[in-house]
Write a structure and sequence with these properties.
The protein is mainly alpha-helical. The chain has one domain. The protein is 86% helix and 0% strand. It is built from four helices and no strands.
Length: 86
């Protein structure tokens, strides 16, 4: 959906105006926010796994701490994405 909107917006000025008008609706903003929320969680969890591949945080206690940090950092990023979109 977002790739189609990008393609349409780059095709012409009229396409850009149509995509811009479509993305101003609250439903479209919500959909974009949900997609970015998933992306932010996936990004933070992926960074955690990369750090664990370096043998950092592989014990049970540090694994629990890392999981909690992923939730906290991704929640902060999700809120920031919501502020940026609205």
């Amino acid at each position: 959906m977002l790739l189609y909107g990008l393609d349409k917006s780059l095709a012409s000025e009229q396409g850009f105006a149509e995509v811009k008008e479509c993305l101003t609706s609250p439903l479209a903003k919500f959909v974009v926010w949900v997609l970015l929320s998933g992306l932010m969680y996936h990004l933070t969890a992926g960074i955690r796994h990369l750090i664990m591949d370096l043998d950092i945080g592989v014990t049970l206690e540090s694994g629990k701490l890392g999981a909690n940090l992923v939730f906290i950092i991704s929640a902060i990023l999700i809120v920031l994405m919501g502020v940026w979109i609205w």
